[in-house]
Q: What sequence folds into this?
């Protein structure tokens, strides 16, 4: 098989593969013999079908299959051996490719178009500058985390007098004409809180004590039928017809008390003896917040680094006509209009892919198993932190990380992320960083749509 490359320009080439009978004849004959051994044709014992009959029945199909396989392997071996950095996939040439007829031809010519990536090198120096934001941890951020802990590790205590957020439990009895209606609704162990009542009905419970009988109107206390139905243990539709007053006997008053800033709380959050004072507690919280902000800071740096590098190589030339043709052929639901709208973004993504590849080779970046495991643990910590769960036991983190890595798609994404992190670390070390301290509010505004 003869293969010839002809360059059209720096981004486009045509590769012609000439296949003669001698190139494929032996393989076709070998495949025919294998077919003969397996062929199950009425009137012939297995393996005894005449070669001529097998050839007549399957010869052309086998020849076409072998030639196509040979052309595919030959083309990709040629690309690999010659280190041609192609974009997309080879496409049949639309003007030079002649019609193929496996019934009449013995020699064939296949012509393919190649889209070739632009040649460039990524050189980074201290003349290249990117902002690196340092988010200041404010007292308010620390206070909010302290409050989150005191709230989470608090406890329920039985009280004697009602306050707004208390949970009340008792018996509800429907009334009529100022007295309990013996035929009316009765709800044992009714549970409610006045926090969600209307102001007029909430006031009736203020200062109430265990054992008190409070008369109120549930239909006026709650603004929707679902809440009323839930209290009275009836359907939403049945609740629409409730207008009567009810008597509520206060059997118990339960109040949630936030935890005190004491050693018991410190030990629950960070483990026994790790923190021994409020000052140390706040210092540890500040360090945890700073640690969790690193991912956001690195994310912003990654965005800015990507933007800087793409702009740095704005003059790269791509085989636009080839790429558009390939993308449309690969995505049957994509229209030319949509492609034109999205093409500049597609080129930026392609440019970034090529830049990352260059940087990875320059930095000799490799992703090891311990890198993946470390990233999974970081993911686990971040997910717990979203719910204010900081200082989680390492064994819990490790087990959660192992579960994360069991998902094949997640594992692949983590490998990509680790490689990208290493690339950004290489960029960070090679350029000049302009460190700017900002508040969390200022930092978050950078992500608002303009």
A:
């Amino acid at each position: 098989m003869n293969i010839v490359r002809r360059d059209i320009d720096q981004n486009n080439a045509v590769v012609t593969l000439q296949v003669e009978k001698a190139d494929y004849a032996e393989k076709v004959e070998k495949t025919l013999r294998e077919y003969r051994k397996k062929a199950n044709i009425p009137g012939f014992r297995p393996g005894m079908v005449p070669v001529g009959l097998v050839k007549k029945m399957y010869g052309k199909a086998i020849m076409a299959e072998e030639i196509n396989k040979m052309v595919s392997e030959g083309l990709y071996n040629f690309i690999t051996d010659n280190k041609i950095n192609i974009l997309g996939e080879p496409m049949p040439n639309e003007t030079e490719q002649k019609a193929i007829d496996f019934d009449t031809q013995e020699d064939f010519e296949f012509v393919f178009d190649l889209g070739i990536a632009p040649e460039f090198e990524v050189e980074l120096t201290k003349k290249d500058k990117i902002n690196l934001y340092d988010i200041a941890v404010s007292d308010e951020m620390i206070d909010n985390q302290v409050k989150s802990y005191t709230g989470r590790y608090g406890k329920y205590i039985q009280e004697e007098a009602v306050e707004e957020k208390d949970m009340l439990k008792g018996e509800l009895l429907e009334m009529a004409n100022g007295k309990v209606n013996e035929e009316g609704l009765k709800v044992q162990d009714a549970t409610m809180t006045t926090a969600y009542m209307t102001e007029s009905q909430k006031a009736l419970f203020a200062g109430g004590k265990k054992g008190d009988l409070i008369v109120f109107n549930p239909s006026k206390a709650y603004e929707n039928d679902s809440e009323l139905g839930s209290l009275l243990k009836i359907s939403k539709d049945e609740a629409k017809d409730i207008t009567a007053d009810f008597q509520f006997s206060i059997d118990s008053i339960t109040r949630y008390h936030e935890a005190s800033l004491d050693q018991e709380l410190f030990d629950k959050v960070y483990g026994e003896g790790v923190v021994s004072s409020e000052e140390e507690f706040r210092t540890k919280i500040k360090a945890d917040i700073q640690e969790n902000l690193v991912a956001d800071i690195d994310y912003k740096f990654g965005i800015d680094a990507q933007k800087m590098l793409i702009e740095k190589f704005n003059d790269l030339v791509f085989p636009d006509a080839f790429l558009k043709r390939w993308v449309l052929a690969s995505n049957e639901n994509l229209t030319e209009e949509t492609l034109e709208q999205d093409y500049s973004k597609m080129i930026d993504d392609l440019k970034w892919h090529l830049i990352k590849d260059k940087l990875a080779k320059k930095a000799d970046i490799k992703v090891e198993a311990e890198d993946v495991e470390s990233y999974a643990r970081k993911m686990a910590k971040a997910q717990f932190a979203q719910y204010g769960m900081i200082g989680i036991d390492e064994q819990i983190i490790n087990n959660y990380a192992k579960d994360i890595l069991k998902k094949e798609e997640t594992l692949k994404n983590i490998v990509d992320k680790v490689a990208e992190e290493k690339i950004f670390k290489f960029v960070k070390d090679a350029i000049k960083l302009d460190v700017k301290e900002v508040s969390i509010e200022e930092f978050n505004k950078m992500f608002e749509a303009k």
